[in-house]
Structures are given as C-alpha cells and as structure tokens.
Amino acid sequence: MGKKIPLRQCVGCGEMRPKKEMMRVIKTPEDEIVLDLTGKQNGRGAYLCRQKECLNLAVKSKGLERSFKMSIDKSIYEKLQKEYEGSIE
Q1: Residue extents of the structural domains in the chain
Q2: 3-class DSSP state of 41
Q3: Where are the beta strands (DSSP E) in 19-68?
Q4: pLDDT digits 0-9 by tens, 25-61
Q5: Could you tell me which CATH class the domain 7-88 is placed in?
Q6: What is the Cα–Cα distance from 11 to 3, expressed in whole angstroms?
Q7: Above 80 in pLDDT, residue 76?
Q8: Strands 23-27, 44-48: parallel, antiparallel or unpaired by DSSP?
Q9: Least enclosed by CB within 10 Å: which of 6, 38, 47, 51?
Q10: Which helix (H) or strand (E) holds 69?
C-alpha cells in the first residue's frame, strides 16, 4: 500500500486536495495572519487552493475568519492578495 497523502480542505471553495497543492495561511501566536510559504511555520493553519478565485471566495464567505475564530482586517486581506499573486506566478 502506498503512502497516505494528507488532504486539506480549501476555506474558499471547500474542495479537498493534497496538502502540497495548497497555500497555507497561518495565525501566528502573536495573532498575525501571514502566508506560510514553507508550510512549517508555527501557528494555526488554514488552506487555500492556488487559484485567486479561492482567496476571493474565502474573503466573501469569511472562511479564514471562521478558521481562525477572529475578525480579519481588510488590509490583511490586501496583503495576503499581494503575497498570493507573487507566489503563484
């Protein structure tokens, strides 16, 4: 039997995908919301597909806010959007 592939659910579209295909957004112990490009940073993680639409859906549906159980400022979403665009090109 092959190795089990960890699946994660996108907080935008709700699709289950292999963890390696996802972008990880974390809430650090200092309550900062950042894009975790290594996938190994400390903090509570939420996952997004690598499509821009998924980030937009997560903003609309407040998916990240639910995952982190806190409200998220618009400026944080804008920062995430910039980082996101830089990492998928």
Answers
A1: 7-88
A2: coil
A3: 23-27, 33-36, 44-48
A4: 999 999 899 988 888 899 999 999 988 899 999 999 9
A5: alpha beta
A6: 25
A7: yes
A8: antiparallel
A9: 38
A10: none
